[in-house]
Amino acid sequence: MRRVVIASAAALLCVGAAAGCSKNTGDTSATRTKHTVQTSAIDTDPAHSAGPAKPVPGAVRGGTLYALQEQDFEHLDPQNVYISDAESVSQLLSRSLTTFREDSSGKLTLIGDLATSPGVDVHHDCRTWRFTLKPGLKYQDGSTITAADVAYGVARSFSPDINHGPHYIQQWLAGSVDYNAKYKGPYDGAAKLPPGVTVQGDRQLTFQFPKPACDLPFAAAWGTTAPVPAARDHKPLALDTHPFSSGPYKIGKYTRGSELDLVRNEYWDPRTDPLRHDYPDKIVTRIGATADQQTHRVLTSHGDDAATVTRSSVPAELVPVVQRDGTARHRTLAGFTPYVEYLNINTERVTSLAERQAIEYAFNRRGYLQVAGGSAAGEPASTIESPLTAGYHKYDAYPAGPSGNPAKAKKLLGGKHPKLVYAFTNTEEGQKKATVVQDALQKAGFTVVLRPVDKSSYYATVGKRDAGFDIFVTAWGSDWPSGYTIIPQLFDGRAMDVNGSWTWLNEKDVNAAIAKLSTEDANTAAAAWAKLDEHIMRAYAPVVPIDYEKSFTLVGNRVGGVFLSGFVGAPVYYDAYVKP
User: Fold this and answer.
1) CA-to-CA distance for 59 and 40, rounded, in angstroms?
2) How far apart are CA 341 and CA 479, in angstroms?
3) Which of 393, 414, 452, 496 could form a disulfide with 426 if both were Cys (CB 3.0 to 4.6 A apart)?
4) How far apart are CA 90 and CA 285, in angstroms?
5) 161-209: per-residue pLDDT in tens?
């Protein structure tokens, strides 16, 4: 689902992406876990971007909805949000220029949120985009949301102190991956408008890009375009704990490491919002319960737990318990997420293509998934792109069967016994998975040294060039269902020194293909990204695709309207209600 240039204001243009999406039926019945077809669309009919959102069947107003999660939110500042748990909450606190709406058929539609439409490509060349805000938009104090506030939100995302969110719009405006080399945000006396953004009155703003930015409407659905009034932004990091709400809820109380309470924003006008509802009086996230504790509590559904959503997937050992429980089966949120899990191979350390191909053949996906929870945790993968991606093409460059082919791997090694250092999260599950990886690769002739890494610093550690690891597991989910949000982020060698890397692949043909496809029309690029996916795997083998990840979580028997979002990859609350 990349850029679609639309000539008619009432057009609805769709592309298909194989997906496994969960239904949004307004109730909490079990969801689909097989691959189906998800349609993706940009909808430019102004009526579909206007509010209010359609009522959820059976929904009632009132009560408190609870959520349990093990760790605190990393960020709530809208320009810093980039992780699914925070995204679910941020949808209630911060609105953006555009947003994605999902319905019961699995359709993912881009509509205007703050804006009256998903944007106007002024000259039909993807370089100049114009957005007009809806009238009547208010913050939590009743003040008016203006185009200048949206522009200021984009401006602050250039700050080195606010660098955890997406970087697409900043890079497109700067014309460089090193997007804040010159402009570093509106602090220390710098301009409050970023380069390339102009404001016309209170309700209109225009983006002017040096190169085509055809995916801007999709990127604008992230918090990069959330409005922030400059007068409320006293310190760059202050909004991480108390964002200034433009959505249906605001923060009532937030005790880090313990609890986040959301209460209604009385100035939010549902007539301006095509996506969200505010059925519960409060939405409370309680922090600290392990996945095991969450599952046991919501499985029994006593007291507050009957109105609770688990944010951790059901642990592998409890999956059969839930599946055997007749009542619990109808309270699961099960389905595919946008994430693919990979065994990354540091190509600067493992320089031999034959050795990397031997790792491909040796890997034991069946054993790895058994530790993770079996079919409830995912399906074996063979591609870089998720099946949710537009243009997805299924292939297997290294067919080794579900448990691997150590004989084929040994043949590629030619009697050698290369040493591999494997980094893994130092948790009980991480240790079990490490044993599976070690056993599989050693059967093929590798010597595997295990290096545990603390869970809280895992991603920051393994992404360092000098970390000393040859292989390690990560997962990547697309920011919208396009190869543009997968392949360049993982394999563009031109951006390694700025953004870091997991594989440190830097190949001229791959870089050139990325540069070309990044400015192409969606209808051409979708299939071309999939071809590049296959080329990277066959020519360079920089990752072992392990599995297409699934989510398998629970809700209490008084929870309605919560569903697993194929876009966020986690339960979302904007249709949620509490049953009497």
Assistant:
1) 27
2) 15
3) 452
4) 13
5) 998 899 999 999 999 988 999 999 999 889 999 999 999 999 999 999 9
Half-sphere exposure of 418 (CA within 13 A, CB side): 23
pLDDT value of position 103: 64
**pLDDT below 50 — which residues of the chain?**
1-39
Tokens of 90: 């941020």
Q: What is the CA radius of gyration of the chain?
A: 23
In sequence order, the 6+-apart residues with CB closer than 8 A to the CB of 266 are none
Beta strand 419-425 with 108-112: parallel, antiparallel or unpaired? unpaired
pLDDT value at position 339? 92
Q: What pLDDT was estimated at residue 566?
A: 80
Per the CB < 8 A criterion, the answer to whether 113 and 245 are in contact is no
In angstroms, the CA 166 to CA 145 distance is 22
Rounded CA-CA distance 497/73 in Å is 28
Instruction: For residues 59 and 25, give the distance between their C-alpha atoms in angstroms, rounded to a whole number.
Output: 11
Residue 519 burial (CB < 10 Å; 0-12/13-18/19+)?
A: middle
Burial class (CB in 10 A: 0-12, 13-18, 19+), 191: exposed
Task: Name the residue among 554, 540, 187 with its Cα closest to residue 346.
Answer: 540
What pLDDT is stored for residue 569 in this prediction?
A: 84
- Strand 419-425, strand 471-477: pairing: parallel
pTM, whole model, 2 decimals? 0.86
List CB contacts of 473: < 8 A, sequence separation 6 or more. 341, 342, 343, 344, 424, 433, 437, 546
Q: Which value, to the nearest 10 degrees, does the dihedral of the CA atoms of residues 124, 125, 129, 132 take?
A: 0
pLDDT for res 456: 76
CA dist list (Å): 513 to 19, 175, 234, 382, 397: 25, 18, 43, 21, 20
**Dist. CA 155–CA 342, nearest whole Å:** 34
Residue 27: per-residue pLDDT? 38
pLDDT in tens, 419-443: 999 999 998 889 999 999 999 999 9
Distance in angstroms (rounded) separating the CA atoms of residues 32 and 340: 18
In the numeric block, the tokens 């409407």 are attached to 217
Distance CA 4, CA 526 (A): 11
**pLDDT score at 329:** 84
> 85: Cβ–Cβ under 8 A, 6 or more apart, which residues?
69, 73, 311, 570
Residues 6-37 as b/e (b if ≥16 CB within 10 A, e otherwise) read beeeeeebbbebbbbbbbbbbbbeebbbebee
Q: Are 302 and 84 in contact (CB under 8 A)?
A: no
Per-residue model confidence (pLDDT) at position 425: 94
Give the model's pLDDT for residue 31: 36
pLDDT at 519: 83
The two three-digit tokens of residue 519, written as one number: 């400015």
The pLDDT of residue 41:
67
**SS3 assignment, position 547:** strand
- How many Cα atoms within 13 Å fall on the side-chain side of residue 401? 9
What is the C-alpha separation between 289 and 209, in angstroms, rounded?
Answer: 46
Identify the pLDDT of residue 469: 97
pLDDT of residue 497: 77
For residue 456, which of 107, 152, 72 has the smallest C-alpha distance?
72
